[in-house]
Design a protein that fits this description.
With 457 residues, this protein is α/β, with parallel strands linked by helices. The protein contains 12 helices and 12 strands. Strands 1-7-6-5-4-2-3 form a 7-stranded mixed β-sheet, sandwiched between helices. Strands 8-9-12-11-10 form a 5-stranded antiparallel β-sheet, covered by helices on one side. The two termini are 43 Å apart.
């Protein structure tokens, strides 16, 4: 369990009511023009500027937090004597790839874990998580999710929905979940009853996913792990760490988690990793996950890096700065929409353990308008119109704004949301807070032009 953990909350100045007139933004657009009403641009700029002023203390804190986390990365590079010769890789089987081996050890140090495996062969965070689940669990084992229903893409992996694709359920692994409390927190009082049956693995999802709940702090995860181990010492505590890396000073493996997994096109890729994922934790469990990724007997010893090691090392070097900027962008998004009266999670200045900012927009049209505005503000594919559509692994149609250099990257500024009540926008990433500002300004103008700026009462 973490001791002496610093609060991730910041006191902010009280909101100044009535200091900004939104009348120009509220004015309906001219019937013969697609542009917002006169003055809407200026009002949007002023609203975003006011939000910037409101979050200034938080932005300063986030900027200051980059330094110690970057120092951790640099210390890992130095300890493993990283050199240019580690940028090359081995073709074919990938046996004896010195760069890959150093990369694994560097990630283990940064993630405060015994071992790590960083592989381009992981096509997503879901793939890395799946390799860990199938690598550790055996027929007849029990998997218990203690943070409620897992992220949509894991439902078919576990066997909650879908059939005939080789889910955990089809391999005889029993699944149960502990529902969250009404306020979205973990039912810690219910853990003893939930763990009354022998359980091989407990699944903890750090991020909120597509749910309206607080993301879990590392300190809270440490307390949960401590409680689980007190009830069942041999139970493996596994964390879905997506979106949470380098947000806090410690990672889940520093407070007792046995294993965790995530994606390289999220935080740790620093916006430049072209693909990939990682598993980190106890060395034996990491190896079991690698045996599922490759094959028993090969495990972590195989897999070429395709001469892309430099991008993975450099992405990790950039990651603390990129995460810091994404967190500032998330605060700005929360400040802008809360000023207008929308529900936001987390609240401005609230505790954060991931880079996601949720905004409850209340209807499908607002969700589509904001995603279109963010897409139009993107560096790639700004001319595209995000259209709600089915997405592999998801239960609902999604609308996604992601004009990123790395396809699907959520370390770059992006947003998405399922087309279902209560129509929540999930915004994340951003290599610079200014990019988020531009996206927000355009979103306000477009919402005003459609007469949908104010939330529906």
């Amino acid at each position: 369990m973490a001791s002496g953990a610093k609060s991730n909350r910041v006191e902010i100045p009280a909101r100044q009511h009535g200091s900004l007139s939104l009348d120009p933004l509220m004015t309906a657009p001219s019937p013969d023009s697609s542009d917002p009403a006169p003055g809407a641009l200026q009002a949007a700029l002023a609203l975003v500027a006011q939000a910037q002023e409101r979050i200034a203390p938080i932005a300063a804190q986030r900027t200051a937090a980059v330094k110690p986390r970057l120092a951790r990365v640099l210390d890992a590079f130095a300890a493993e004597r990283l050199g240019v010769h580690h940028f090359a890789s081995v073709s074919g089987y990938g046996h004896g790839d010195l760069g890959r081996e150093v990369l694994d050890r560097v990630f283990a140090r940064v993630l405060q874990a015994e071992a790590a495996a960083v592989r381009l062969q992981f096509v997503s965070g879901t793939h890395a998580i799946t390799a860990a689940l199938f690598g550790v669990l055996r027929p007849g084992d029990r998997l218990l999710a203690i943070t409620g229903r897992p992220y949509d893409t894991l439902e078919e992996v576990i066997g909650i929905r879908g059939s005939g694709q080789g889910s955990l359920a089809e391999f005889g692994i029993h699944y149960d979940e502990l529902p969250l409390l009404a306020d979205g927190s973990v039912d810690e009082a219910g853990l003893a009853e939930a763990l009354a049956l022998p359980t091989r693995m407990v699944l903890i999802q750090r991020s909120c996913g597509y749910s309206w709940r607080p993301s879990l702090s590392v300190a809270r995860m440490g307390r949960l792990v401590e409680r689980v181990k007190a009830l069942q010492p041999a139970c493996v505590c596994f964390v879905d760490n997506c979106y949470g890396e380098l947000v806090e000073d410690q990672e889940p493996t520093a407070v007792g988690a046995d294993l965790m997994a995530g994606s390289l096109i999220k935080n740790l890729g620093g916006t430049i990793a072209p693909s990939g994922g990682y598993v980190a934790g106890r060395a034996d469990l990491v190896e079991q996950a690698c045996c599922r990724l490759t094959a028993p007997g090969i495990g972590s010893e195989g897999g070429s890096s395709f001469d892309l090691n430099r991008l993975l090392f450099q992405g990790l070097f950039l990651a603390p700065q990129m995460v810091g900027e994404a967190l500032i962008g998330a605060e700005l998004t929360a400040a802008v929409f809360s000023q207008l009266g929308y529900g936001v999670n987390p609240a401005v200045g609230g505790e954060r353990s991931d880079v996601i900012q949720a905004v409850r927009l209340g209807d499908a049209e607002r969700l589509k308008l904001v995603c279109r505005a963010f897409q139009a503000s993107s560096p790639v594919g700004s001319y595209l119109d995000p259209v709600p559509a089915p997405m592999p692994g998801y239960a609902s149609e999604l609308v996604m704004a992601g004009g990123s250099f790395i396809d699907g990257s959520t370390s770059e500024f992006s947003a998405d949301g399922p087309l279902r009540e209560p129509f929540v926008l999930y915004a994340q990433g951003g290599s610079h807070r200014s990019h988020v500002e531009l996206g927000l300004e355009r979103a306000l103008r477009d919402l005003a032009a459609a007469g949908r700026l104010a939330p529906t009462s």
